[in-house]
Design goal:
Chain lengths: 130, 170
Amino acid sequence: MTTHEHDFAKKITLYLDAANRELKSGTLYRLQQARAAALAHAHAPRRVPELALAGVGGTMAGPRPFYAQLRFWIGVGLIAFAGFGWQQWQAYQAVKDAEEVDAQLLTSDLPIDAYLDRGFQVWLKTAGQP
Amino acid sequence: MAQDRRPALIAALAAAVLLALAPAIGHAQIAMKSPKWAELSPQERQVLAPLAQDWDQLDAQRKTKWRGIAQRYPTMKGDEQQRIQEQMRPWSQLTPDQRRVAREQYKSINNLPPEQKNEVKQKWQEYQSLPPEQKRELAARPGNGKIAAPAATPPGNKPGASPGRSADRP
């Protein structure tokens, strides 16, 4: 801060002090109360939004265990639901595949025995070979 | 650090158990959709008539499959409808393993070129004319059990002529 600036700040302080002295006692009291409230609020523990990190073992903002958070269990529920849905889809697909193949097989020109007869399978590979 | 991870491991285990139980839960849900014979529609009962006796003993998946086939039935040609009606009951009485083998063999044949597929049909007719003891001898031979493309038939080589001689080849 230069000498000029220092002098300027001193003048402002003088003016402010002079103005303070002219404040009414009621106004001063309200200002004191507001300052005290602001300080009390500044020292109170602040609530910070927490981010649950499944699998990491904690939260970014505090010691609260992640498994005690609803969000974690919602995640577990979603994973389980996805697993259940996937299993249902697989079962459905297996049935549809069997339906498709069986419908073709049972309407094919060959009887079921042709697909199960081991002698026929050997016959197919060997009959007619020179 | 290890203590911090313990809850995560417990939670992961819980999730894994839930996932592991999912198939059982799914099976239970499918089992609920297992209509009795009397609950089928008149059209389904008509198409699936060969299965009437065994229907209530079938599991839910097989019932669902047969109901799907019944839905396809009206779109099939007349001869296909007749064949499926004839083969329905014998097919349902096979063991699961026999059905699996038959499906695999069907897929093998179905993947052959059209001319070879026709040849397989012809070979089946020829095979029918073989004497029973020759069929038994063929069935007793070692092999991989998978249907292959039929071997080329030279002119004059008819069924029962001398398949045993050439069959010694791999």
